[in-house]
Design goal:
alpha+beta; 4-stranded antiparallel beta sheet; two-stranded antiparallel ribbon; about 55% helix
């Protein structure tokens, strides 16, 4: 996308980019397990199949038959072992069991140490999202200065629009903090 030349275009661009940082955070949080089975838990799993790496979702259908069990119905029988190995090696603390073309993945209860570890990971994800948002804010401020230099807006408008960008930034950061707080509570629930 070319650099915005109007305030409305810039505001839309800044909001869209900040919102996408929040969406990335939500996706990362969905992969952090909190003791309950979720199909998103297996999103980071990458399978070596057909001479290349591919997401697990391209090798089979992930299901949640019980609150503490995931299943993967592998489409190609020759890939069952590769799927099982990929889940085991993904660093999620899961131990899959194969039953024909169905791979069962029991979700073990989380111990206190693992919960604290997951909280730290959630904190890192949140900080990455905050950094992304601050980078978007910086880009927006730089674009405002360029717009002034090019004669698109006045110095008074810059001050007003900088405050508006800061308000948008503060709202998004608050949203990130709220998601983190909610995720930490979810992780610590027994």
């Amino acid at each position: 996308m070319s650099a915005p030349t109007s305030w409305n275009d810039l505001k839309k661009d800044v909001s869209r980019r900040m919102d996408s940082a929040v969406e990335v955070l939500k996706k990362e949080f969905s992969g952090l397990r909190s003791g309950r089975a979720s199909t998103n838990l297996l999103d980071p799993v990458v399978v070596e199949a057909y001479g290349q790496t591919m997401p697990l979702s391209q090798c089979g259908t992930v299901g949640v038959p019980e609150p503490r069990m995931l299943t993967v119905q592998v489409w190609d029988k020759s890939q069952v072992k590769a799927v099982e190995k990929a889940i085991r090696d993904a660093g999620l603390g899961l131990n899959p069991q194969t039953d024909g073309q169905l791979v069962r993945v029991p979700i073990p209860a989380l111990n206190e140490e693992r919960r604290k570890e997951l909280q730290k990971i959630a904190g890192k994800y949140s900080e990455q999202a905050r950094i992304s948002v601050r980078n978007v804010r910086r880009d927006g401020m730089d674009t405002l200065k360029k717009m002034e230099k090019d004669g698109h807006i006045s110095e008074d408008e810059i001050k007003k629009h900088e405050k508006e960008i800061q308000v948008i930034t503060d709202d998004i950061i608050k949203k990130i903090d709220d998601y983190l707080s909610h995720k930490e509570k979810e992780i610590m629930q027994v």
